[in-house]
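Figure S7 source data.
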Amino acid sequence: MPQISLNTKNTWCPGCGNFAIEAASKKVIKKIGVENTAITAGIGCHGKIIDYLNVSSFYGLHGRPVITATGIKIGNPELKVIAFTGDGDSLNEGISHLIHAAKRNSDITVVLHQNRNFALTVKQFTASSPKGFISNSSPSGNIEEPLNPLSLVYSAGATFIARGFSGNVDHLEKIILQGVQHKGFSFIEVLQPCVAWFDTYDDYRKNTYIFENTPKRPLEKINEWDYESDGKIPLGVFHKEEKESFEESLKKGKKKLNTKKFLSRKV
Ligand SMILES: Cc1ncc(C[n+]2csc(CCOP(=O)(O)OP(=O)(O)O)c2C)c(N)n1
Ligand code: SF4
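C-alpha cells for the predicted iron/sulfur cluster complex:
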C-alpha cells in the first residue's frame, strides 16, 4: 500500500483545526484505499491538505473544488471523490457550485473547513462569520447574519448532511467515513477553529454535543444552533436519504418530459 503522507513541510499554524481534519481524512482514505480515492481542494489554508496527502488530487481555483470533484466523478465513477473546501471558498466564492452539486445529488463528499473567516488572506469576514465579527473587511463589525450551510444544502437536495468538530478526531473520522460511503451528495461541515484569527476552541469544547440517531425532522435539528454564540451545538448526522445519484441518472440516459401531460396537471 502506498504511503499516505507526503514529506512536505507543514505550514499550518500550530494548533490549527486543520490538523484534525487531515488526521481523520487520512484514516478514512486508508480504509477506502488510496488507489480508490481522488481529492480536490480550493484556495486557502484548507487547500494545503493536498500538499500533505499522497493521493491523486486536483488543486483548483478559489471556489472550484466541488465542480472539479463532480467532473472527476463523471470521468471515473469508480473513484470515491472528496472535495476539501473553506467557508470563503464554497459559501462565498463558489457557492453556486455547492448548491448545484447538492441539487444534482452528485456522488461526491464535500468537507467544509468551517473556520468562519477568509484565513489565508489574513482575516476577512465570510458568509458564515457571526454578526459583529471584526475583521479586515469589517473593521466596525460584520453587519450581516451568518449563513447556515446545512440548511442551505438540505434545501438544495443533499442526501447526507453531518457536522463534526476538530476537537474530536474519532467522531470526525466516523462521520467522514459515513459520508464517503454514502451514495449521493454528502456534506460534512467541520467546525475548524482558526487559532490565528478566530479561535473558537473554548466555545466549541464547551457547547458542542454529539447526538446518535439521525433525526426525523432534520431542519429542526439543523436550526438548533444559529451560528451565533449562545446555544448548544449539535454534532452528528442530520440527514441521510437513499436516492438515485447524478451519475446513475447520467448512465441511464435522457428523460424526456411529456410537456402536454405536465402542463395539463390538475391543481
Ligand atoms: C478568484 C480569487 N479570489 C480571491 C483570491 C484570494 N484568496 C486566496 S485564499 C483566500 C481565502 C480563502 O478563505 P477560505 O476559503 O475560507 O479558506 P481558509 O483560508 O479559511 O481555509 C482568498 C480570498 C483568489 N486566490 N482567487
Ligand atoms: S491562519 Fe488559521 S486556518 Fe490558517 S493555518 Fe493558521 S490557524 Fe489554520
